[in-house]
Structures are given as C-alpha cells and as structure tokens.
Amino acid sequence: MSTSSPSTPAAPDDVLRAAGVTFRVHTHPPVRTAEDVRRETGLSVADSVKTLVFTADDQVFLVAFPGLARLGYGRLARAVGVPRSRLRPAGEEVLRGLGMEPGGVSPVCSAPGVTVVFDTAVTRMGTVYCGSGRADRSVEVGAADLLRLAGTPLVADVADAADATVSVAGAGDAG
To answer: Per the confidence metrics, is the pTM higher than 0.85?
Structure first.
C-alpha cells in the first residue's frame, strides 16, 4: 500500500480502495508508450485510457482519452478555455507533485485544484486499463468509476476522431 503525506497526494490505487471501487492492479516492466504496453504487459491498448498532463498558467489538467486515439491539442485548449499557445505538456516536477511518474499517469488523482478532462468516448467504455501513478503498474477498472471518482470532470471531444483507429505504434505515450 502506498503512503502519502500532506504534501503528496494519495496514490490512485489508494483513492480507488478508499472509494470502495473494485479494481485490479497489473504489475509489469516499466512502460511509456502504447508499443511498450502491448509488448510488455499483454494488456489491450484498445481497452486502455491514456492520460496526459498539461499546464496552462497555474492550472493543471489531466486529460484521459482512448489508448488508440491521438489528442487534439486545439480541441483540448478550447475545452478548457485557454489559448493553445499557453497549453504545455507538464514536466516531471508537476508529475511528482501529483504523486505520479511518466508512463504511469492516471486519471485518478487526489491533488487539489486539478481539472480532469475525459474524452467523450471514455464515457462509452466498459472495463479499461489506465495508469496507476507508476510506470510499472496498470489498473484495470470500470470507466464509469473513473468518471465518478473525478468528481465533476470536464467531458469533451478532445481526441482527434480521424486518428481514433491509428496503429498501436503511432499511439504515443500510454501512461
């Protein structure tokens, strides 16, 4: 079980456990890309929710979308109401502040002030695989539980529909 201090958010699996959510943790070699997920874990990338972290000014956004899709940066900027030019991928320092590492980013986050954005396609998914906060573990959980735990998530079309069926090799970061 992970521990947290007042300055470190609870690990995603601790948040899931505390909420009484049924989930399963899959341990595997560290992964960072969809190709790593396919090769190292045996988990279905098509049934995964990829989560990326962005910042704009002092805001932090966790953006969750289907694992085979590509994020539409312009769509995301419009959804969160910031100019595209101010939207930046978060660095490792921001990830550490969320209690997460590259390749393991999760849409489950207990850090205050974080906006969780889900692509609308995630609302139609059943059981999914997502990051656990660590690159060497993935969580299998219901997509509906992810949305519920986000509190008041922003749900918008942020994935580029034209790329929703891209090959695994072109899918980018899986965490």
So the answer is: yes
